[in-house]
Amino acid sequence: MSFTAPAPAPVSEDVSLAAAGDRRAFERVYRAHSDRVFSLCTRMLGDRTLAEEVTQDVFVRAFDRMHQFRGDAELGTWLHRVAISVILNAVKKRQATATRELPLDATAPAASNSGAIEMDVRDRVRAAVAQLPDELRMVVLLYDVEGYTHNEIADMMGINAGACRMRLLRARQLLRTMLPLEREEWGS
Fold first, then answer.
1. Which of the listed residues 29, 56, 113, 178 has the most CB atoms within 10 Å of its CB?
2. Under a CB-based contact definition with an 8 Å cutoff, are residues 75 and 12 in contact?
3. Could you report the per-residue pLDDT of 100-129, keeping only the tens digit for each?
4. Which CATH class is domain 9-97?
């Protein structure tokens, strides 16, 4: 029994034109994918203004490297990888220039109905994740939200898989201390 590799995904006309330098085609690519990239940047960085800047940087890099897109994967997947790389660079740059302080939001009192409690818990989890140190927050988001493996995250972040696992463990331990949830919030 022989194995044949799957054929590469077809490259759309806009992608081909953008790779050849057509700015209008790239603008169409941008409009088709910018919301997803911005959402990823916002989740990873926890700062909407910085996410806007980084989203622009992602597409500048993508335009410069569009000729490298081979069509082996979907364009959205390739852009996601470019975005992760740009996000990690932004985090390293931010760490090198200054330490970042996040304002602590007062948590709202628990509401009487379960939908409001779930929303409150979600908001508190998001706020707690945003307060994690960058290297821990990145691992949590890449692993738990984006679904990358430890090996993939390690490659992206320039660490080994064991360090990735330890960061995830440390992040989860910190989150447990930051999120003392009431019994009814856990659904018990």
1. 29
2. yes
3. 344 444 334 444 455 565 667 778 888 888
4. mainly alpha
- What DSSP string describes the chain? ----PPPPPPPPHHHHHHHTT-HHHHHHHHHHHHHHHHHHHHHHHS-HHHHHHHHHHHHHHHHHHGGG--SSS-HHHHHHHHHHHHHHHHHHHHHHH----PPPPPPPPPPSSHHHHHHHHHHHHHHHHHHS-HHHHHHHIIIIIS---HHHHHHHHTS-HHHHHHHHHHHHHHHHHH----GGGGT-
The domain segmentation of the chain, as residue ranges, is 9-97, 108-188
**pLDDT beneath 50: ranges in the chain:** 1, 5-10, 98-112, 183-188
Domain 108-188 class in CATH: mainly alpha
pLDDT for the residue numbered 114: 53
